[in-house]
TrEMBL record, chain A:
Name of the protein this chain belongs to: sulfate adenylyltransferase
EC number: 2.7.7.4
PANTHER family reported in the protein's UniProt record: TRANSLATION FACTOR (PTHR23115)
Swiss-Prot/TrEMBL GO biological process terms: sulfur compound metabolic process
Cited PROSITE patterns: G_TR_1, G_TR_2
Domain Tr-type G: 19-233
Enzyme class: transferase
Species of origin: Actinacidiphila reveromycinica
UniProt xrefs under InterPro entries: CysN_GTP-bd, CysN_II, CysN_NoDQ_III, G_TR_CS, GTP-eEF1A_C, P-loop_NTPase, SO4_adenylTrfase_lsu, T_Tr_GTP-bd_dom
NCBIfam families tied to this protein: CysN
GO molecular function, one term: ATP binding
Record carries keyword Nucleotidyltransferase: yes
UniProtKB/TrEMBL annotation, chain B:
Name this protein carries in UniProt: Sulfate adenylyltransferase subunit 2
Enzyme nomenclature, EC number: 2.7.7.4
Organism: Actinacidiphila reveromycinica
Gene3D superfamilies on file: HUPs
Keywords of this entry: ATP-binding, Nucleotide-binding, Nucleotidyltransferase, Transferase
Record Pfam families: PAPS_reduct
Top-level taxon of origin: Bacteria
GO aspect biological process, one term: sulfate assimilation
Molecular function per GO: ATP binding; sulfate adenylyltransferase (ATP) activity
Phosphoadenosine phosphosulphate reductase domain span: 45-268
Length: 445, 315
């Protein structure tokens, strides 16, 4: 996970303008024009190069299409091009003078909900696309709910195809208000609604000449300037130990460093720390940032911690400040998205990977399954199948230091694996959902 | 090697932008995390090392990830027999300087033994797949690092960071594991292995900016120099014993450099005066051609050339 904040960041080491990284995901129903939007963003920000465009033109001609089909820029697999749909997440890269972007382009089909979960898990912003003619659909609500469950800090509602509704403000306003009301119920902190036409290029990169009533940013302008508010530093410090570095050389006979990527917060030399799950305590003697000693380090830097005492620390342990160490438990309840084709059932034995630790676990209970379109909870479904969202209670063989997902997307998340073939089964988020599931029906105004 | 870092931590009061990593620091941190995950989870990892810029940057990151200890991985080079001598020289010096172990699989051996047949077009890049997958099986590697980047090609854009391969080294794009947060799943059955791509999220420009920042040494063919080349299929190829020029193709001296380094038979040079990392960064920033579009013949064979090769086990 990376932080991206103010575009006016300090100068980069290279001396050129500093750029931060923004990871975002797009979601939209089939035919909402998502591929066109992505194509337009890449094209108008001059991120599509001549040979790629020529390849698209050639392929479009072969298919008998009159104009270059920008969707062919993004549909990378044979099967996708054959069927004209996006099957799997694709990652796109583009840059402006202000920021570098990693775009997780996720498919819109219901059956690929898990792919949106994949894309949203690392995203700091999600673009939800709707067709201005159709308004908020069941699929729109599903995309908003996933962004909320995964706690993507920013949501952009892109109301597309405004050219087909006469660029009328009331059309846009009604959709933005309906979506906003739904997003508020989901606990989404902020929604930015932008009226666009991906086909014509209105408000994607260039401001629209057709919608003088709109005074907000274009999509690209918003992506470039959005202040990402999930700053990891205020959270308590967490370092899942990945690997113990012990050179045992003449130069470094006693070096014993605990390497890992800081999951949240910051560590300073001198901090009192506790190693979990053992609970032993020590003090930070030194911090190495890839070979360079530093007085402090913060998320998401990859570092090596040197401790004052010769504790027994190994991969899978978690180092945390003694004053703010998480509680450990063998019982965990989480909101989950089931991502495998085989179901998840009560009583099933699984492996659980949290941070750098993988432990045996058993599914004790599946108390509910969430219906995303109206946010109602269906009690005791007994099992979850592919793309289901639900609540799951798990008992682990060893105690785990779990934070709430609301407090930390890194140390509050874990995955379930099949112990037989290692398949990834379920994406899990610890603690309450943040989504109010008590009301069975949606207030549609 | 001590790049200044952006920002210093405050007292948590005005925490915010001073903590933001630059994009290069963020990418570096992510790549190091990936290296350490593999070191922690696998028995026999290996780094695919061609002597090209991506594998050199990959090795540089691995060195930083485990410092002051040695890199806990061996290197593997699949030598097509048509490599640039400067690149092989650089490879051997890097191995010696860092005290690494290296395995070399020779395509020429396979041709000499009659296992592989020279293609009519003389391209040897596609022939690498069999020696690569054989070596992985024989030496029982369970994690194989590749320098592939998702920005290179549209099939690669679909690739996971941890990509499971079956016992035949095959990639099935429809059966990829979802990859959630940074919780990489390295579980595999005996005989299977995982391809790992620490540079997944890097672009060509990022790689060059990083080379510049870290003063990473590259084979000299990446920088502008005078070279005898001839034109074939719109690309400037280096004359040599591998099979060029053919009749009707004339050699001329040009100022060129290479954007990618692979087999001499399918890697083209570009006209360039960029002879320093600064000038290369400036050149790439305004280039209207992708790295592969400009200089790789093997990707132009069909719309799905890369996908098809990856399915068979190519990296």
């Amino acid at each position: 996970m990376t932080t991206a904040t103010d575009p006016a960041a300090p100068p980069s080491p290279a001396g050129g303008p500093a750029t931060t990284l923004l990871r975002f995901a797009t979601a939209g129903s089939v035919d909402d024009g998502k591929s066109t939007l992505v194509g337009r963003l890449l094209h108008d920000s001059k991120s599509v190069l001549t040979d790629q465009l020529e390849a698209v033109e050639r392929a479009s001609q072969v298919r008998g299409q009159q104009a270059p089909d920008l969707a062919l820029l993004t549909d990378g697999l044979r099967a996708e091009r054959e069927q004209g749909i996006t099957i799997d997440v694709a990652y796109r890269y583009f840059a402006t003078a202000r920021r570098r972007f990693i775009l997780a382009d996720t498919p819109g089909h219901v059956q690929y909900t898990r792919n949106m979960v994949t894309g949203a898990s690392t995203a700091e912003l999600a673009v939800v696309l709707v067709d201005a003619r159709n308004g908020v659909l069941e699929q729109t609500r599903r995309h908003a709910a996933i962004a909320a469950l995964l706690r993507v800090p920013h949501v952009v509602l892109a109301v597309n195809k405004m050219d087909l509704t006469g660029y009328e403000e009331p059309v846009f306003t009604a959709i933005a208000e309906e979506f906003g009301a739904y997003a508020r119920r989901l606990g989404v902190p902020r929604v930015t609604a932008i009226p666009i036409s991906a086909l014509v290029g209105d408000n994607v990169v260039e401001p629209s000449a057709h919608m003088h009533w709109y005074h907000g940013p274009t999509v690209l302008e918003h992506l470039e300037t959005v202040a990402v508010c999930h700053d990891p530093v205020p959270g308590p410090a967490r370092l899942p130990v990945q690997y113990v570095i012990r050179p045992r050389t003449a130069e470094h006979p006693d070096y014993r460093g605990y390497a890992g990527q800081i999951a949240s917060g910051s560590f300073r030399v001198g901090d009192e720390v506790t190693v979990l799950p053992s609970g032993r305590t020590s003090r930070i003697n030194g911090i190495d940032l890839l070979g360079e000693p530093v007085p402090a380090a913060w998320a998401p830097q990859s570092v090596t911690l040197l401790l004052a005492d010769g504790l027994d620390v190994s991969r899978g342990d978690l180092i945390a400040p003694t004053a703010h160490a998480p509680a450990t438990s063998q019982d965990v309840t989480a909101t989950v998205c089931h991502v495998a084709d085989r179901p998840l059932t009560v009583g099933q034995r699984v492996l659980l990977k949290h941070g750098t630790r993988t432990v045996k676990a058993v599914v004790r209970d599946i108390p509910s399954r969430l219906t995303l379109d109206d946010l109602s909870a269906h009690p005791a479904p007994g099992r979850l199948v592919a793309n289901d969202i639900g609540r799951v209670s798990i008992r682990t063989a060893e105690p785990l230091p779990l934070d709430s997902y609301g407090a930390s997307r890194r140390t509050g998340s874990f995955i379930l694996l099949d112990p037989h073939d290692g398949a990834t089964l379920t994406a899990c988020m610890t603690g309450p959902t943040g989504v109010d599931t008590r009301q069975p029906t949606l207030d549609r105004g | 090697m001590n790049p200044p870092r952006t920002g210093v931590p405050g007292n948590g009061q005005d925490a915010g932008r001073e903590f933001a990593l630059t994009h290069l620091d963020a990418l570096e941190s992510e790549a190091v995390h990936i290296f350490r995950e593999v070191a922690g989870e696998f028995e026999r990892p290996v780094i695919l090392f061609s002597g090209g810029k991506d594998s050199i940057v990959m090795l540089h990151l691995a060195l930083k990830a485990f410092t002051p200890a040695a890199v806990p991985f061996a290197l593997l080079h699949v030598d097509t027999g048509h490599n640039f001598p400067e690149v092989l020289d650089h490879r051997d010096r890097a191995v010696a300087r860092h005290g690494l172990r290296m395995h070399v699989a020779l395509v020429q051996d396979y041709i000499d033994r009659g296992v592989l047949k020279e293609r009519p077009d003389g391209l040897r890049n596609p022939l690498q797949t069999v020696p690569l997958t054989d070596t992985i099986r024989e030496l029982r590697f369970d994690a194989v690092f590749g320098g592939g980047r998702r920005d290179e090609e549209k099939a690669r854009a679909k690739e996971r960071v941890f990509s499971l391969r079956d016992e035949f080294s095959q990639w099935d794009p429809r059966r990829q594991r979802p990859e959630l947060w940074n919780l990489y799943n390295g579980r595999h059955a005996p005989g299977e292995h995982v391809r790992v791509f620490p540079l997944s999220n890097w672009t060509e420009l990022d790689v060059w900016q990083y080379i510049r920042r870290e003063s990473v040494e590259l084979p000299e063919i990446y920088y502008s120099h005078e070279r005898e080349v001839f034109l074939r299929n719109g690309m400037w190829l280096t004359a040599g014993g591998w099979g060029g020029p053919a009749e009707g193709e004339t050699v001329q001296k040009r100022r060129v450099r290479y954007r990618t380094v692979g087999d001499m038979s399918c890697t083209g040079a570009v006209d360039s005066d960029a002879d320093t990392p600064d000038k290369v960064v400036a050149e790439i920033a305004v280039s209207r051609l992708t790295e592969r579009g400009a200089t790789r013949a093997d990707d132009k064979m069909s719309e799905a050339a890369m996908e098809d090769r990856k399915r068979e086990g190519y990296f």
